[in-house]
Batch of 4 targets.
Target 1
Amino acid sequence: MTHTYVLGECLRGQYKLECGSSDAEIKVITGSCTSSSSTPTIQTNVCHSLSSNTRVNVPAGTCSGHVIEDPHFVGLQGERYDVMGEPEKWFNIVSDKDFMMNAFYHQNTNHLRGRTIMQQVAIAVSGGGGMSHTILANTTDLYIDNNEAMVVGSKISLTSSSVDKYNNNQTSSSSSSSSSSTLLAVSRISKVQWEIRTSSYVVILHHQHVHDQPYWDMDVSLLDKTRTPHGLLGQTAHHVHNHDDGAGDDGERRRPLKGKQGQGEIEGTYKDYEVVGPYGVDFIFNKFLIGSN
């Protein structure tokens, strides 16, 4: 008997597994699929991307979040909210002691009411002692340390001491030294998709278009759940809502008030996350290059 399974999204740090079969009843019991006659094979440590059919291999218990379209956020614990920001400005998405990610908001001209898209994404990582490597995903491609774009199927692994010289297939010789550990690994999965991996994060960037406008969707996985990052998305790793969603005077549970700028989900206001440029850290909740979290 053949059984099929469908793997759902990460919700509140746990993998939600749903199973189905056309010829037998299958029940979900503590994360495994069972039937009266057999047990199907289940791939447990995989999350489906919300913006593509890609499956991203991440450790069990990892929290994953997403930012898609104009822009809709799914937090690292499953929160759903929007942060439209302001067009032609940079905002911080994730800020951690050795990892940061900013996005450039651009006016979505196909919609009214100020809707925006993330037209550029900038990432910086640190191996200690300052910024070690940078990634810029602009309107057309993705570049590491301002070097040439990667070809499809290539992978680059870098240490904090890697020289800025690549051949689109292998890392520089200093990166492959047995005495050095990989700080940053970047893979070009397809023409429109890249994986950025550090010891604590996995980011999948998807290059999309709405009509003739390019933009980026992102899937972000936090591998180290002891981290306490900040940023419009990062803060949801250890989220404390800044609204009261308890019972009202009449004893009824009230749905928290939400708007298009993260109200009810983010600390402060969206304006508190604006930075001066792609690698800007000049916002009040910055954690990049600031000691331990």
Target 2
Amino acid sequence: HSVQQNHDGLPQKAGFPQEKINEIHGGWYDPSNRVVKFDEELRSDLFNWLLEVEQRIDLCLCLGTSLSGMNADRIANTPAKQSKKDKPNTIGTVIINLQQTPSDSCALIRVWAKLDDAFRLLAKNLALTDIKIHEIPIPEGDVYEIPYNAEGFLDTSVKMTWDLRPGSVVVIPHREAKNYRSVGQVSHKRDGHYTIVLEEFHGDRKEEVHRLLGKWWVDCAIRGAVLRLPVVNVGAVVKPNQ
């Protein structure tokens, strides 16, 4: 699993599967997971997932972050402290960055380096000479038959027509989302990613906001890899899976 504190979608662009990423602080390519401000609460379902991973983690690669006091820091701090107490089945935490962190003294391995330099050396030592970005296979067109119900939940007993053509009307189905029930339209597609114009409430104001749906969500939906979709069509067409 990856707990991603940034919002930029770089792991997914490199081919890391969306279903394995917890974008705890929000994601630019998930319309249902807008970026959380410092004074806002984390999305409850993502925070619960974070706690589940914390209980199961045996080895953490802590990459780039300074562990400056965010809730997500527990993913690195917990195995680091547990390894010092010789907890069974806990390996510990490897920290790679240029900044000092509160868990440096507990780290299993501490590397002071830029990530590019560290992983370039690692790839060399592992004799990985032909590293390529994993291209996500996306079918042609913008209409997909996927195993989800009208509320966006995974349901292998049905097939939903997911229409992402320009002009299609969509809604945010996540009850935990800050923009739950926001309705909007698919505007256009660029580099495989969909731009969706949503009407969202921010305080007492209603605003028109442009959100992105990463192309990897299509791959996830076709595979039935995520439990719930970020958006569904208003009046979605759902039929029994025969």
Target 3
Amino acid sequence: MPLPFLRAIMFGVIYLALCVTGTNYTIGRCRDIHFPGLYLLSNTLVTTGTSVRQCIGIYSANVTLDGGGLQIKANNAGNPNLQKGIVVAAPGAIIQNVQVVDFLTGIHIGAEGTGCTVQSVSILARRDSCPSPSLDGIVVEGSDEHIIQDNTITIDYSPALALNATTLIGISISRSHNNTVLNNTIEGLYAPSVAFISPSFNTGASVYGMYFEGLRDSHVIGNRLLSLQGGPGGNSTVPGQAGGSGGPAVGIYLTDQSVANEI
């Protein structure tokens, strides 16, 4: 058999093996991912700079991100409004074995991210200073067929002085079909001050373990919702101004567009 032909066969076998098994990469800093493969954290990732809005962005199909138990952490001293820990904008992503700490949203899966899996992830969303916008663990918007299982999400919002109403959500899914949300643990804590400096911002925080809007044909099974406590209203510091109302604490909230689900 001619040597060039043998080389062509060998190249084809190697190429096929790479296509099947993918390529392994290590990640030692916050970055965007544009190629399929297995990505392993080599160390804790901490965001830097004041303009960063996310740590990891997944923009290729068929990416597996395995944290090996390490952290992806927001440096809120450098950027108090850091938005998202991991952003998924491509189909078939798998995110597992990672801790996502101190972002306003731990993991966000957008309309391009169909068929993703988030498993064995620990998310701690917390804020102990103002400004204090809403905090979310996992958010899915406009994409279908996800598996979200065996994750632990803790929402801890305890500023010394609360300036505005806040919404805390463990798992939020909107406009999405055929999902499995299984065996997750969600804990929400809220410990606000009782004094508010403006009559316009004196409503307690609203806490939702799971918030579903337009969820269809999905299975939500075996999840644990612990210590969900809405924030009480505060006493206005403005003379003659009434105090604020308390916020609700809801385990699972479904809008009327959510149908044909097993919960």
Target 4
Amino acid sequence: MANNVEFVRTMTEPLHRIQHSEDTTNEGKKRRKEFELFESIEKVDFGGEDGHVAEHTDLMDLEGIRVTRCTTTRSAITAYMCGAEKATNVDVGRGSDGKLQNHSSNTSSFRKYLRCRYEQGVENGGNHRRSVFRLGIGNKDNMSGYAHAFSIIAQPDGSYHWLQSFIGNYSLATWLKKKDGSKLSGLAGVLTYAELIVKLDTLDRLMMIDGWTNESNNDYLDLFNVDKNLEKVNSRSTRNHRRWIPDHRLSVFTWDEACEYPLPEEYRLKGEPSDEDEDEADYGTYGDTCSEMMILNHFNDLEDLLGDLSSLE
């Protein structure tokens, strides 16, 4: 990934072809039309309705060739680790709202699942589940420039790779080489479990702000490697010069476990493994404490949502 200039483009180009060659649900058609209208009104390139499409190539911009759009990078990582089928399974063309499986106002459910899997690994003699997590952070104002998408890859030794890029700022390849002396690994994107929890603490703090302060800017920089204050000074975009308002607050956290890897090479750019292969690669839900916990958590989230709706009546 770090040395392959075409990695993200190579992994995501087939996704766009798959996306438009498949039958689209009625709900998917509706959502696509809504997206196309929004994109045309706002006159901005989101990389397609699912973010799979890389930005246009500028041969004078090496980072642009590598791809800096965060959603495209996340799609590429999912396709590489989990296969094209998983990389497109929440596409709006399939009737999805484009959100991942879990969405909330904080990182609580993700923390619970991480802790459960980490403790399982410790009990298993330090042999940890190899998981690919897709994550996103968003707000009410889609044009604010604060939303982000990234991946976390759980390693068998109990460490985690935080993988990301940021549109117009840096590519995945550049991020993979970023050094950080405060991390045990010496790299910004390779974290211990404790270091990852500190990151999630920072993210929760950023989701509770009432205004953009130096602390908020430092938290955003620590998480996503972008100095928003400096970006405002250097950018010619009127969007980046807008005053911070509550609709800019990062208020929705989404995540899911895309797969357990490694995935056989032949499945990365085409369909799913056979049922037999999938059984061997997945713990399954029945009898697995962490998976059962997440099902219960979904019901609790639904109860909370229904409670919030009832309070509005």
